[in-house]
Amino acid sequence: MADEPDRRGFLKVATGMLGGGLGLVIAAPALRMCVAPTGAETVTTPHDPIDLGLVEQLKVGAPWHRVAIIAPVVKDAWTTARDIVLGGAWLRRTDAKVEALSAVCPHLGCAVGFDETAKSFLCPCHNSTWSESGGLVANTGPAQRDLDPLPIEVHDGRLRLTWVRYKLDTATREPA
Ligand code: FES
């Protein structure tokens, strides 16, 4: 009879531990669902070079040519999307060199066009203008810097461009 309280105590503790364990098993996934995706990178802009096709499509000495920059895969914390348009770039090939400029206006992000007649870049939103090489033409609009160059390389005869989105409306160029 003396060990009756001990057995009761043991059963109490064992039941409590079992209940607590079960509670943890149920609560952990629910808690994880509530706090997700805290701490995770929520949107991934591809940092790897994007294939833009054969370099031969750019004729040496031809005017700037606009291309859409399409990421094969973009992931966020919940989904994976394919063939997402990130923006546009202007490309040209001079002798042995290929150049790329972002078509995103460094003022507020409108799409920059190229005026063949005036041989200059123009943003239709607030009339900022850039020279044929992408240099800002002073006093034409509110943009504060030149068009943003984008890293581009030729690898095995194919153009590979690295997409970079820069902070808008700043005089200096910093990745966003
Ligand atoms: S968005 Fe291009 S000048 Fe304002």
Structure overview:
The structure is a single chain. This protein is of the alpha+beta class and 176 residues long. It folds into 2 domains: 35 residues; 119 residues, Rieske [2Fe-2S] iron-sulphur domain (Rieske Iron-sulfur Protein). It is 18% helix and 32% strand. The chain has 1 helix and 10 strands. The strands form 3 sheets. A 4-stranded antiparallel β-sheet has the order 1-3-4-5, with no helix packed on it. The protein has a 3-stranded antiparallel β-sheet with strand order 2-10-9, with no helix packed on it. A 3-stranded antiparallel β-sheet has the order 6-7-8, with no helix packed on it. The longest helix has 32 residues. It is elongated and about 100 Å long. The chain starts with a helix and ends in a 15-residue tail after the last strand. The mean pLDDT is 88. The structure holds FE2/S2 (inorganic) cluster. FE2/S2 (inorganic) cluster binds next to loops.
Total number of domains: 2
Low-confidence stretches: none
Q: How would you describe the shape?
A: elongated
What share of residues is helical? 10-25%
The CATH superfamily of the largest domain turns out to be Rieske [2Fe-2S] iron-sulphur domain
What separation lies between the terminal Cα atoms?
75 Å
Rg, Å, rounded = 28 Å
Supply the CATH class of the largest domain: Mainly Beta
- The overall pLDDT, averaged over residues, is 88
Strand/helix succession: HEEEEEEEEEE
